[in-house]
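Journal club prep — side note

Before the paper discussion, L.F. wants everyone to see what a predicted structure for a comparable chain looks like in token form. Sequence:
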Amino acid sequence: MSANLTLIITAASLIGVSVYLLLERSLTRVLVGLLMLGNGVNLLFMVAAGPSGHPPVAGKVSAEDMTDPLPQALVLTAIVIALGTTAFALAMAYRSWQLNGHDDVQDDVEDAAIRRRALRDEASDSYDLTTGGPDDDDSAPEEKA
């Protein structure tokens, strides 16, 4: 009962390429990455299911000769979830194309502010440099004796 090495390498390469594509800014590349990730994980489900056997119908064959139906059910569920995610990503990419003329995701305003502060090496106003933590003003009020 050994796993097929070709299927394992194929699934690993699909997942690796999909992770790279998911880190891109273009929504179409993210969409392709999501689809590839779904296919790679589905392939891993089928590899983990083991060798094929007889249909899981009680009374026809012994339980040892039956195929486990759980991985097949997980793959079918994953296909439905991937279809919904694909539809959502396509709608986002199309709307971004309508509004901006491209499907690249722009930087968030807060991310840009954090990047500028990091380049200037500034601490935020709510961070106390002397104690290495938040200011005492922001914490819960304490009773003074």
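L.F.'s comment for the group: The chain is about 60% helix and 5% strand. Keep this in mind when we get to the figures.
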